[in-house]
Each structure stands twice: as C-alpha cells, then as structure tokens.
Design a protein that fits this description.
GO molecular function, one term: zinc ion binding
Order of helices and strands: EEEHEEEEHHEHEHEHEHEHEHHEHE
Radius of gyration: 20 Å
Strand content: 25-35%
Organism: Simiduia aestuariiviva
InterPro entries: ADH-like_C, ADH-like_N, ER, GroES-like_sf, NAD(P)-bd_dom_sf, Quin_OxRdtase/zeta-crystal_CS, Zn-ADH-like_protein
Pfam families: ADH_N (PF08240), ADH_zinc_N (PF00107)
CATH topology of the largest domain: Quinone Oxidoreductase, Chain A, domain 1
Number of helices: 11
Shape: globular
Structural class: alpha/beta
CATH superfamily of the largest domain: Medium-chain alcohol dehydrogenases, catalytic domain
Keywords: Oxidoreductase
Length: 324
C-alpha cells in the first residue's frame, strides 16, 4: 500500500510517499481501506518534532480517517467487512489502509460523505470535549472563539451555538469572519483591524467572557486573559501563532477564572466511554444540521506536504482532506 512516511523529524519536504506492507487485523482490531483522511495542525507539528508527543521513527502521520472495513479481527462484534466507518487513531491515517483498535471505530451513516466524516472527528470532537467536559458551557453564556475559521475554531462556533451560547468569533480577515458568521457566530471581531483587548471590554461592558476557546496563543491569549468573566473558563487548545504565552497568574486570582487545558487525544484514551457518548451526540447534531464539516480543499495522498503547509500557514478555512 501507499502511505506518507516520516523517516526522521524535520521539514515537511522530508516526508515521502512510501510503499509499505498491507496491515493485518489482530484481535480486537479492524483494517480500513481509507477513502479520506483529515489533515490537522498537530500533524504538521508532529512530523517536525515540535509536538508534545514524539513517536519512534519511521511512522505514518494522521489521526482521523473514514473508509470501508476490509478485515475484522478476532473478538470484534460491532463491525463487519464492507461497512462504512470513521475512526480516530494516534497515527497511521495518511495511508491507503489502516489497522486500528475497533473501539476507536464508529459506523458511518450512508448520508455522510467520507470527505466530511474524515474531518468530523479531530476538530469537532476536540471542540465538543472542550466545551462540554472541560468548560461545562451553559446555554446563555458568552463563548469567544479565536481562530474561528480554522478547522477546530469553526467547529467550536457551531457546537457553541448548538449548546445555546452567544458566540463571538475572532479572525484575521473579513473573508474568515464571513465564514464564521455563516456557521452561527453572533459577533465578529477582526483583530487585524481592531484592538482585541479593548474591543472585548466594550462588547461585554467590562463583564468579560464566560468561556474562551483559545487556539492561537501569543498576544491573542493575553488579550483574552484580561477579559475573563468571574467564574470564567479560559480553554487552552493550541498555539497556531507559534507563540506559547505565559499567564500572569494574578489575573486568574483577581478575576476568579480558571485556566483549563484541552488535550483531546489523551481524553479518548482515558475516558473512552465519554468519547463514544460525545461522538454519538455529534452524529445526531450533524444529522439534524446543527453541525457540519466545511471542506476547504481536497488533496491527493501524494500531496500531503502541500496540504500540511496550507494548514500550518493558517490558510485553511475549515478542513483540509487527503484522498488516497
């Protein structure tokens, strides 16, 4: 089979399209013929050795995929050959075939295209976990989403609306803000034209924001930290700007807000039943039209370098998908 392989941590240009042996299913596993794989910001950091996790090399990157089951291992009862599915995995999704723990695989309704299903897990599931388990977002609260037109930011906008929040979208261009608005954002802030800290203070009349879904870092994080409401929750999701901020902890003291980390990959491993429940709720929201996957661009598997570069450069609006 063909797969994208990282032989050593380094620039994206070092990734290769390799011929690898077809995987086989062991007990409790299935093999999936991959029809689409989602491209995510952490994938690009991982292959460069810049992510929190550093697997042994060589490895095949990719954390989410959709396709058809072609082999079922011993003990698997809820899946069968020929079934449409989608899954998450720590690695190995940038390939024509994937072997994965069957507990990480979900049946895919016929009404959901593979390309959208492949973009539904990581971004939407991260936002869902963040807003549900980590922030305990309540209807009527104010939710601020930074990077609101990216894959996970756009998901947070949709899910925040599904949970009944008033959503403030923060983006760098008018085009991105228009996408966020089309996906449910109530208030729009272009931080390249306005001072984010001052704008948030004005919009909230000095009360601050209840929940911040923060995936940019740097100065954006600092502006959010200074505009938190009492009992607010500042969610640390990522650092797309490349700048990991430092929190002036006296702000948390005097404003009475919580800094809450969000690491979805570990959540799926430590709380698998909660992950399964979340995915069922996401599917119901998808089928009801409350959430959707905005596919920005499809790339062939061989062009994984270009796909990752687009995501890392923050040029993607919604999700970028690989097609083996």
């Amino acid at each position: 089979m063909k797969a994208i392989q990282c032989n050593a941590f380094g620039p994206l240009e070092d990734l290769v399209l390799a011929d690898l042996p077809d995987p086989t299913a062991g007990p409790g596993q299935v093999v999936i013929a991959v029809k689409a794989a989602g491209v995510n910001f952490p994938d690009g950091l991982l292959v460069q050795g810049l992510y929190q996790l550093q697997p042994p090399t060589p490895f095949v990157p990719g954390t989410e995929a959709a396709g058809i089951v072609v082999e079922v291992g011993e003990g698997v009862r809820h899946l069968s050959e020929g079934q449409r599915v989608f899954c998450c995995n720590l690695l190995n999704c940038y390939a024509e075939k994937l072997v994965v723990d069957a507990r990480q695989v979900l049946p895919l309704p016929d009404t959901i295209p593979f390309e959208e299903a492949a973009g539904l897990i990581t971004a939407h599931a991260t936002a869902h976990h963040a807003l549900k388990q980590r922030a305990n977002l309540q209807a009527g609260e104010t939710l601020l989403v930074t990077g609101a037109a990216g894959g996970t930011g756009l998901a947070a906008v949709q899910i925040g609306k599904a949970m009944g929040a008033r959503v403030i979208a923060v983006c760098s261009t008018a085009e991105k803000l228009a996408i966020a608005q089309a996906n449910g954002a109530d208030v729009l802030i272009n931080y390249s034209e306005k001072n984010l800290k001052d704008e948030l203070k004005t919009l909230t009349e000095g009360k601050g924001v209840d929940v911040v879904y923060e995936c940019v870092g740097g100065d954006t994080f600092n502006a959010c930290a200074r505009n938190m409401a009492w009992n607010g929750r500042l969610l640390v999701v990522g650092f797309a700007s490349g700048k990991i901020p430092e929190l002036a902890v006296n702000l948390a003291l005097v404003k009475g807000f919580s800094l809450v980390g969000v690491f979805w990959g570990t959540f799926t491993q430590k709380q698998p039943s909660d992950f399964a429940d979340n995915m069922q709720e996401l599917l119901q929201w998808y089928l009801a039209g409350k959430v959707k996957v905005h596919v920005d661009q499809l790339f062939p598997l061989a062009d994984a370098q270009q796909a990752l570069r687009k995501v890392l450069n923050r040029q993607a609006i919604g999700k970028v998908i690989l097609k083996p």
